[in-house]
Amino acid sequence: MKPMAHEQAAPLRIGILGAAGIAERAMVEPARQLDGVSVEAVGSRDPGRARALADQLGVPSAGTYDAVLEHPDIDLIYIALPPTEHVRWAKRALEAGKHVLCEKPLSANGTTAAEIADAAKEHGRRAFVGFHYRLHPFTQQLLEVIGSGVLGDVRQVEFDFSIPHFVVKPGNIRLDGALGGGAVMDVGCYAIDLTRAAYGEPAVESATCVLYQDDPRVDLQTDAVLRIGDGVPVSIRSSFIGDDAGSMTLRVSGTDGVLDASSVIVPQWGAELRVTAGDRVVREITADPADNSYREQLAHLVGAIRSGDPSILDAERGVGTMRTVDAIYRAGGLQPR
After folding, report:
1. I need a surface site. Which of 209, 212, 233, 316 has the fewest CB within 10 A?
2. Homologous superfamily, domain 134-290+323-331
3. What is the pLDDT of residue 20?
């Protein structure tokens, strides 16, 4: 039921599972900037670590994961854990009557992603995936340009989402196969999500993986080819071994023009979009540095929960992204996580 216009909107109180650094950037800082939103608790396997993080961030309560789920004054659980842990704790949170936001990717694979979506339906709560970039105004403009027809008939789509080689170091959970590590899991999922948003469901044609020597379940880099529409190729590079600058770029080549976009994953880091037709610049867009994708994501979730309206971040919609991740890994000779 939607609240009457004269009713005061109920506050949204958040509990965090996981003491990872992303929690501050993705949840605590945005909550401070929004009225009626507060982070009330942090949970960790180590209650002492949870208490230290809570003190550092000014969060009132801290304890174990279970303590956060049992907290009576929490409405939404933000799960900032390794992907293999998402399904267990998302289902526990939903059973406890909480809404859930899973940090991307939604889960370890398409099967467990569907379990999260099904559990949300079963318990009458909402489950979301944290593709924050989708809520940034730059991304909305990017999708509008792609859908406008200015490029003519699309001939090729190319993503290069490469993290600089010195960022993901030994010991990082993104290099642990047992925790759902891998480049497609970490950055390729963004490209798949954006492809689905712009063009619908893709088909996976091929994939080539560079494996991590210390854990051959993990791809340091994967080059995948997908097909959309009538067979238009979509090439996706997902990498932990990029050059010193790294890359978050998208190129869409059409019969009437070429679109180039940068900083696609995190638009507030100086994203730019340019459409050219030969030597002529047709369209240019630069992201407003004052816009923040994490703040926009949280504001969006508040609205979706209060109104009951569908969300582009709904877990039910996000299952397809994980199924495509699975298909890429199979095409590259690996097993889904």
Report:
1. 233
2. Dihydrodipicolinate Reductase; domain 2 (3.30.360.10)
3. 81
Q: Is 3 exposed, middle or buried (0-12, 13-18, 19+ CB in 10 A)?
A: exposed
Q: Which residues of the chain have pLDDT under 50?
A: 1-7
CB environment 71-106: b (16+ within 10 A), e (fewer)? beebbbbbbbbbbbbbbbbbbbbbebebbbbbbbbb
Give the C-alpha separation, 25 to 145, whole Å. Answer: 29
In contact, 271 and 261? CB cutoff 8 Å: yes
- Residue-wise pLDDT tens digits, 312-326: 999 999 999 999 999
A 10 A CB-CB count for 200 gives: 10
- What's phi and psi for 274, nearest 5 deg? -140, 135
φ/ψ of residue 223, rounded to 5: -110, 115
Q: What is the pLDDT of residue 1?
A: 36
Separation between Cα atoms, residue 14 and residue 12, nearest integer Å: 6
- Furthest CA-CA distance within the chain: 61
The full 3-state SS of 298-317, as one line of letters, equals HHHHHHHHHHCCCCCCEHHH
Residue ranges, comma separated, of all CATH 3.40.50.720 domains in the chain are 12-131+294-313
- 315-331 and 189-199 helices, crossing angle to 10°: 120
Helices (H), ranges, the chain: 22-23, 29-32, 47-57, 65-69, 83-95, 110-123, 137-147, 183, 189-199, 293-307, 315-331
3-state secondary structure of 141: helix
What residues pair up with 17 in beta bridges, in sequence order? Answer: 43, 79
Torsion angle, alpha carbons of 204, 210, 214, 217, to 10: 10
Q: pLDDT value at position 8?
A: 54
Cis peptide before 336 (omega within 30 of 0): no
Domain with CATH 3.30.360.10 in the chain: 134-290+323-331
The structural architecture, per CATH, of the domain 12-131+294-313 is: 3-Layer(aba) Sandwich (3.40)
Structure pTM? Answer: 0.95
